């Protein structure tokens, strides 16, 4: 699934808009992220925008090629580790030079809008799904890091999401409604109808929604320390919640309207939850497919 999302990103990068020059192209999109950011963050965005603006066809082709290499590299067993390593470096670079640190420093990184930056989840998943010999343990993500460390990573991630839900513009009804409005242009009719409902809800009850989301994130953070049945319940809640956010607020990442570079955070958070899903069996040898391939490798490459 991780490989599939990377390949989707590569295909989205080939949209004509990203090869265009000027304010209507990719460089213009990068410059549009500078308002509200500290000057030292804004400079990195304008520097990147200047490089893209100088030769948008070449730079965008390189961006797409790198993502194709990562996606196809994860699929093949021999290149999986180098591809995952490249994905970590690339994701962190995009997060800083292409997303302005995900909007955290300008107070606009609510999980409802994709904060702290969807691309960070690519790097996190690459670490958690890193191929490693040995048992999957109680869940797939424990294979590379061990159970204790993986649980700490899970708890930290969800606590960060909880904080971002209620700081900055995260609890502002106007700002939350704006997340939907930014992406509602050009959407198909059925999604536009959902947008009108979610915009109205967030505009009138955005603060309540933000607090409720933060509370749920705290509970999800603690869920990996509970019994297996409770863990599964909260993982299902996490999957359902971010599926709803992905559709009703993130507008499936804006990919149906065109101009999106990725599907936003929804699918990645769902994949993260699946990586922590308690396994029904805890064998002492690596779980394998019929072809003898470790389970964790299948999850990364699917």
Structure characterization notes:
With 302 residues, this protein is mainly α. 63% of the residues lie in helices and 0% in strands. The protein has helices at residues 2-12, 26-31, 39-54, 56-75, 80-98, 118-128, 142-145, 147-166, 173-183, 189-223, 228-248, 266-275, 295-301. Helix 6 (118-128) runs parallel beside helix 12 (266-275), helix 8 (147-166) packs across helix 10 (189-223) and helix 10 (189-223) runs antiparallel to helix 11. The longest helix is centred in the last third of the chain and has 35 residues, at 189-223. The radius of gyration is 19 Å and the shape is globular.
| Number of helical regions | 13
Question: Strand fraction band?
Answer: under 5%
Order of helices and strands: HHHHHHHHHHHHH
Q: Biggest β-sheet: count, sense, barrel? A: none
What's the structural domain tally? 1
What keyword list fits this structure?
13 helices
Quick recap of the structure?
The chain has 302 residues and is mainly α. Helix content is 63%, strand content 0%.
What's the topology here?
Blueprint: H1 2-12, H2 26-31, H3 39-54, H4 56-75, H5 80-98, H6 118-128, H7 142-145, H8 147-166, H9 173-183, H10 189-223, H11 228-248, H12 266-275, H13 295-301
Helix pairs in contact: 1-4, 3-4, 4-5, 5-6, 6-12, 8-10, 9-10, 10-11, 11-12
